[in-house]
């Protein structure tokens, strides 16, 4: 007879507590504890283990490094997975609603010539078919299954023997082993646990789609992130077309990988040369526009920073940023005011990173300063100049990481000049580039040149 007990779970971070608490001691959120029934079923642990496992000598253990990887047929997806799908791996794909999680999984499912079980608890098979029609290609090996009961899903998977299982989404599945409500932390945890067992025992890769909560974390995040092998996060503004797929955790590869996609009328299209699409359509001779080289994951990206500086008409000057840290911009404004002696305190300043991306890389500092400077003076920056340097509080130009990668990217895209810090590269190293590398140690010096 199953023993029932109830536990309180924080719905924001998944922390467990025997008693109700007002403020979660782990994530600090208020009023997030909900009582959930968990029955410790005795069958639970032994369900899929037919034989008892034993410790194995490390020398006799098969090497994980030689494991075959299956390509997903989508290069950008392979990249974030660390080279392809590993057998028996559990991959969590997180992101806000409407960002394209179902689309990318379906696209992978119909592109791969493998037997795929696509379980959807959110859409009917007809709805998924309609989506597949939009994407275009079809596969005769992709099976759609609208079901929310985990035991049914596992039974079907056992019968069918798919090569890959996709669960859309983990929050819609429920296990009858426990009584908690669908989507609750304990259900999500239980279902993920059972799917993990299935994946490991049968060697079948399982993709889980997970929704994120208001703070951008995957619901029940800690629990899920610990359990799965790989966590991919879909980012981007859903009103804009570009999407970034980032590796947050990967037991089989690097976490500094990033894939880029564009949402079209017929599905997600890979963007293999992000810099080109991000900076291509530009009006020549506009002031307030400057290009900076940032590094996202392992990839250098050239971004367009746009600034508008105009005299304040009310008492307080307005400042606003899109895609960039507000505080960092106000700091840069103060540095420019003090070190370049330009009166920005009487000006409204608006800053935008084009393309809908959010960046934190400080190597964009100099590009931002020059966009502001260019708008303030109403003089356009040259079209073939770009920047890669951090600005310090003293107005000094500081070195940034991976400078060779950045310079190479600028060179590849046909820029004529790049401005960097004097402390970043030795003179003899600069000689190896075809692009003109100009190095400075002070902002005032560099802007005197511009
Ligand atoms: P979807 O994959 O359903 O998002 P999620 O599963 O993350 O909630 O993506 C839905 C959005 O994508 C929706 O707003 C419509 C858009 N879309 C396109 O623009 N083109 C397409 O070909 C498809 C399939 C979707
Ligand atoms: Mg969806």
From TrEMBL:
Q: What top-level branch of life does the organism fall under?
A: Bacteria
Q: Name one GO cellular component term.
A: cytosol
**One record GO biological process:** recombinational repair
Q: Does the keyword Transmembrane apply?
A: no
Which UniProt key words apply to this protein?
ATP-binding, DNA damage, DNA repair, DNA-binding, Hydrolase, Metal-binding, Nucleotide-binding, Stress response, Zinc, Zinc-finger
Residues annotated for ATP binding in this entry: 95-102
Instruction: Outline the segment boundaries, as ranges, of region: Lon-protease-like.
Output: 348-450
Q: Which InterPro entries does the UniProt record give?
A: AAA+_ATPase (IPR003593), DNA_repair_RadA (IPR004504), P-loop_NTPase (IPR027417), RecA_ATP-bd (IPR020588), Ribosomal_Su5_D2-typ_SF (IPR020568), Ribsml_uS5_D2-typ_fold_subgr (IPR014721), Rubredoxin_2 (IPR041166)
Supply the Pfam families for this chain: AAA_25, ChlI, Zn_ribbon_LapB
Q: Which SUPFAM superfamilies match?
A: P-loop containing nucleoside triphosphate hydrolases, Ribosomal protein S5 domain 2-like
A Gene Ontology molecular function term for this protein is: damaged DNA binding
In this chain the RecA family profile domain maps to: 66-212
UniProt motif (RadA KNRFG motif) ranges: 249-253
Q: What does this protein's UniProt record list under function?
A: Plays a role in repairing double-strand DNA breaks, probably involving stabilizing or processing branched DNA or blocked replication forks.
Query: Which family is annotated?
Result: Belongs to the RecA family. RadA subfamily.
Q: Which NCBIfam families match?
A: sms
Task: Fill in the domain comment.
Answer: The middle region has homology to RecA with ATPase motifs including the RadA KNRFG motif, while the C-terminus is homologous to Lon protease.
Name assigned to this protein: DNA repair protein RadA
Q: What is the lineage of its organism?
A: Bacteria, Pseudomonadati, Bacteroidota, Cytophagia, Cytophagales
């Amino acid at each position: 007879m199953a023993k029932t007990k109830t536990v309180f779970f924080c719905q924001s971070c998944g922390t467990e507590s025997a008693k109700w608490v007002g403020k979660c001691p782990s994530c600090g959120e208020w009023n997030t504890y909900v009582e959930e029934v968990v029955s410790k079923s005795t069958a639970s642990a032994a369900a899929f283990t037919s034989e008892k496992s034993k410790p194995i000598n490390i020398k006799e253990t098969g090497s994980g490094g030689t494991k075959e990887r299956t390509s997903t047929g989508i290069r950008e997806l392979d990249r974030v997975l660390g080279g392809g799908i590993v057998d028996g791996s559990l991959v969590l794909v997180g992101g806000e609603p409407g960002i394209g999680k179902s689309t990318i999984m379906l696209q992978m499912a119909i592109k791969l010539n493998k037997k795929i079980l696509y379980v959807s608890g959110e859409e009917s098979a007809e709805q998924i078919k309609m989506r597949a029609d939009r994407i275009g290609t079809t596969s005769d090996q992709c099976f759609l299954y609208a079901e929310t009961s985990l035991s049914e899903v596992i039974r079907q998977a056992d019968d069918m023997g798919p090569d890959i299982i996709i669960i859309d989404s983990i929050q819609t599945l429920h296990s009858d082993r426990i009584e908690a409500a669908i989507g609750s932390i304990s259900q999500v945890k239980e279902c993920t646990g059972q799917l993990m067992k299935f994946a490991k025992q049968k060697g079948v890769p399982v993709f889980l789609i997970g929704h994120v909560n208001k703070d951008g974390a995957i619901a029940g995040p800690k629990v899920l992130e610990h359990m799965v092998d790989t966590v991919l996060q879909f980012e981007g503004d859903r009103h804009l077309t570009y999407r970034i797929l980032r590796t947050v955790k990967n037991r089989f590869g690097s976490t500094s990988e990033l894939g880029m996609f564009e949402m079209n009328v017929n599905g997600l299209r890979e963007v293999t040369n992000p810099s080109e699409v991000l900076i291509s359509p530009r009006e020549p001779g506009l002031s307030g526009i400057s290009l900076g080289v940032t590094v996202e994951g392992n990839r250098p990206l050239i971004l367009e920073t746009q600034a508008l500086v105009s005299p304040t008409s009310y008492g307080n000057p307005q400042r606003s940023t899109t895609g960039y840290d507000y505080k960092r911009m106000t700091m840069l404004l103060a540095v420019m005011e003090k070190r370049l002696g330009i009166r920005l305190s009487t000006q409204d300043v608006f800053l935008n990173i084009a393309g809908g991306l959010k960046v934190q890389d400080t190597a964009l500092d100099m590009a931002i300063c020059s966009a502001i400077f260019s708008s303030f003076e109403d003089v356009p920056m040259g079209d073939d100049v770009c920047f890669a340097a951090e600005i310090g509080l003293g107005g000094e130009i500081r070195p940034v990481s991976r400078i060779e990668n950045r310079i190479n990217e600028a060179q590849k895209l046909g820029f004529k000049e790049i401005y960097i810090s004097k402390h970043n590269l030795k003179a003899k190293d600069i000689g190896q580039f075809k692009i003109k590398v100009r190095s400075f140690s002070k902002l005032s010096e560099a802007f005197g040149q511009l």
